[in-house]
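Closing statement on the pyridoxal-5'-phosphate sub-project.
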Amino acid sequence: MKYNFYAGPAILPREVIEEASQAVLNFSNMGLSILEISHRSKEFVSVMEEAYDLVQQLLNIGNDHTVLFLGGGASTQFSMVPLNLLHAGRKAAYVDTGTWSSKAIRDGRTYGDIDIIASSKDKNYAYIPKGYPIDSSYQYLHITSNNTIYGTQYKAFPETNVPLVCDMSSDIFSRPIDINKFDLIYAGAQKNMGPAGATLVIVRKSALTKSSDLLGATLDYNNHIKGKSMYNTPPVFPVFVSMLNLRWLKKNGGVEAIQAINTQKSNLLYGELDRNGLFYSHVAHEDRSDMNVSFHLHNPELTDAFLEMCKSAGILGVAGHRSVGGFRASIYNAMPLEGVRVLTEVMQAFEASHG
Ligand SMILES: *Cc1c(COP(=O)(O)O)cnc(C)c1O
């Protein structure tokens, strides 16, 4: 048995992978592979429609917002967001909570005027800034709901009248959200939604008022909305597998039900970190991520021995990101409670042998 704790591309439910592999051989009884059919075939159009429906149902999205499946990864949204939402003469506010928000800021600054109104850089991003003033003149406030690398997560979103834009790449579909707070949400698929290659965008239609004269066609959300995510060829297979995974989520009770399990998993793992004398978490208690658990050994010389013990228990992908060091266990929706239990048992055995 293997337990996949990689941060992304990340774990998918086994049954989703099996269904996807069937469709690679024979999709929808067409006698053709999903890899070789037209995105405009009625069979694939119905996949796209079902994917839209599932996103709308799972996140409780009404008519004010529209759903898109695009290519380019979450990183392309670092440019598309300011290109489409930030008007000349206006400013946007960004909160810097780590690598991904820093990249969003850097790209955003090539298109417009951006203020960093809060940052947790002073403590190597080990917390989520709170209580800072947000001037109501900003066109939008950009935040990153879950910081995949540092293991921090917003438990409550900032209270503000400024429209929120949120990179939810690593915690979308892990918990209920109030969609009305957001003008735009984006997420690369490969953390909690599907395989790499598709990017989910959810945008409030009324926010798209900027003249698009200066935008290339594929950078303009309006063209993708008109084309129902088929303005150009969409990432056919990643959209299909994402749809299967969202079906799996719905069948298992949706985001409320998965949140309950996600909380159980993270409580189990943080509980062990707090109990075990060899390990610690550097992340502020109230900001601990339920998706990416970043932790360290008090004695870093034991790092290789711990990774070796993990490996022999079938635990993969727990080495920390190079910018933080230590370890990171990504416990996305598809990770069963059992996998987290096995990891905590290995931590206990490691304590018994090295404590
Ligand atoms: C992984 C990740 C990204 C980058 O996603 P790509 O699809 O590789 O561009 C951006 N933001 C967050 C929060 C991520 O976890």
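Residues 8, 73-75, 100, 144, 148, 167, 169-170, 188, 191 surround pyridoxal-5'-phosphate (CB under 6 Å). With this model delivered, the sub-project is considered complete and its resources will be redirected to Aim 3.
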